[in-house]
Specification:
It is built from 13 helices and 24 strands. It is an alpha/beta fold. It has two domains: 230 residues, Enolpyruvate transferase domain (UDP-n-acetylglucosamine1-carboxyvinyl-transferase, Chain, Alpha-beta prism); 221 residues, Enolpyruvate transferase domain (UDP-n-acetylglucosamine1-carboxyvinyl-transferase, Chain). Strand 20 and strand 21 form a beta hairpin. Helix 1 packs parallel to helix 2, helix 1 runs parallel beside helix 3 and helix 7 packs parallel to helix 10. Bound molecules: shikimate-3-phosphate. The site of shikimate-3-phosphate has 11 residues, from helix 5.
């Protein structure tokens, strides 16, 4: 069986989930830490990096651009930054981002300002995703970047061909008002702005995850933020980013599946330690709390400018979903990656749950509205979808479901947690994609007392 054909068989839970554990380091913060540490002057130490394949892609690309990145231990890297002007042309011009949209969109911002040519590519899923949202604003600031025109989607997609700026040319000022809240687009523009002659200003409709801004500020970049507006003015700046010495918080997007699992299996008590609780990422806890459940959050201070806390489910009234969910607008933006987990929770909640403003979900690692609808259908859970919304009628997932992940890690994990509450065994096909974000998933599930068989 090729590695991508790995399969899970998940049995319904026969006893409550119990355990205290950590989830892998935050994927979004890990990408940013590797990219920004590469551009710093001096040596950074990055502890608790995400062990997933997506972050490994960013690391490999930065290394191929001449950055010395070494392992201190399994999840700690030491990065010898080259400074803003020190990246070198890679031995091979084509750089492979695999499945990682964050690698592609953020690194494009850096490469667009260099003096050498590169091509950013990725797997079939990544090469279908919209890239006009970064190529257009980068071109508007003088970058020589071209995607491939996709006539069906009427957008540019990867591969992205980036020509080096020659003759001392630099990127110029940029003022962008984004039509959708996107941390990847915002970060792409801010990273390119580090190399620009003029000011970079980005306004989002609502604030998306702000890890790039927090890290840039911690490193001394000339940035100002006001809610959903960020402005970076390099005039008078010495162009030096200070190195990082950070512990990456646990990934709330990975934790979300365990928080939901503890709601699916009645009587569960789980504690997830050291999770990032940046408010731009914790919308899923608010959504679950509105349903009468959620998690107790015990703040544990800040690491690297990011708040961290322990999540407790199954104590103080948490852990039981008493009402349906309603997720829309600004809240959708703050739990965009947790919608699959929340849909799994809605499938076992009373009443009809409504998810709105899901247009962005259609252009993730898969069309997640369609993938989730197919998942619910296989579990026999009544649901309706529209172009940008979904209604889920809570019930009992049937046994014997066979789920297709569409190569999407979050669909695989959502199906696995829902399978814990099903009336019989569930088969989940094509689960190797989970390694892109959380290679610890199966180990954690077993540690909590779940039964999962892996084949292939
Ligand atoms: C991410 C931003 C989000 C999110 C993705 C990670 C990031 O994407 O869905 O998983 O690390 O910046 P968009 O910027 O496309 O909303």
């Amino acid at each position: 069986m090729p590695p991508r054909m790995r399969r899970w068989i998940v049995r319904p839970a026969t006893r409550p989930l119990r355990g205290a554990f950590r989830v892998p380091g935050d994927k979004s913060i890990s990408h940013r830490a590797l990219i920004l540490a590469s551009l710093a002057e001096g040596t950074s130490v990055l502890r608790g990096l995400s062990p997933g394949e997506d972050v490994a892609r960013t690391r490999a690309i930065m290394a191929s651009l001449g950055v010395a990145i070494g392992d201190v231990d399994e999840r700690t890297a030491q990065v010898v930054g080259t400074g803003l002007g020190g990246l070198r042309a890679p031995p091979e011009a084509t750089l492979d981002c695999g499945n990682a949209g964050t690698s592609m969109r953020l690194i494009a911002g850096v490469l667009a300002a260099q003096g050498f040519d590169t091509i950013l590519t990725g797997d079939a899923s990544l090469c279908r995703r919209p890239m006009g949202r970064i190529t257009r604003p980068l071109r508007a600031r003088g970058a020589l970047i071209e995607g491939t025109i996709d006539p069906v989607r009427r957008d540019e997609t990867a591969p992205l061909v980036i020509r080096g700026l020659t003759g001392g040319k630099r990127l110029f000022a940029s003022e962008q008002s984004l039509s959708v809240a996107s941390a990847q687009v915002k970060s792409c523009l801010l990273l390119s702005g580090l190399f620009a002659d003029g000011e970079t200003s980005v306004r989002e409709p609502t604030l998306s995850r702000d890890h790039t801004e927090r890290m840039l500020l911690a490193m001394g970049a000339p940035l100002r933020t006001m809610g959903p507006v960020s402005q970076m003015d390099p005039s008078g700046w010495d162009g030096v980013l200070a190195p990082l010495d950070i512990e990456v918080p646990g990934d709330p997007s990975a934790a979300a599946f365990w928080v939901v699992a503890a709601h699916v299996v009645e009587g569960s008590r789980v504690q997830i330690r050291g999770v990032g609780i940046n408010p731009t990422r914790t919308g899923f806890l608010e959504a679950l709390r509105d349903q009468g459940g959620g998690a107790g959050v015990v703040p544990k201070g800040e690491v690297g400018g990011e708040p961290v806390g322990d999540l407790h489910v199954g104590v103080g009234g948490t852990g039981t979903l008493r009402r349906s969910a309603h997720v829309a607008g600004e809240l959708t933006a703050r739990c965009i990656d947790e919608i699959p987990a929340l849909v799994a929770a809605a499938a076992v909640s009373p009443g009809e749950s409504r998810f709105e403003d899901l247009a962005e979900l259609r252009v993730k690692e898969s069309d997640r509205v369609a993938s989730l609808a197919a998942m619910l259908g296989a579990f026999g859970i009544e649901h309706r979808v529209s172009s940008d919304g979904m209604t889920v009628v809570g019930g009992r997932p049937r046994g014997g479901a066979v789920i297709a992940t569409h190569g999407d890690h979050r669909i695989a994990m959502a199906a696995a947690v829902l399978a814990l509450g099903a009336a019989g065994e569930t088969t989940i096909e094509d689960t190797a994609c989970v390694d892109t974000s959380d290679p610890d998933f199966v180990t954690i599930l077993r540690g909590l007392g779940g039964e999962i068989e892996v084949s292939g």
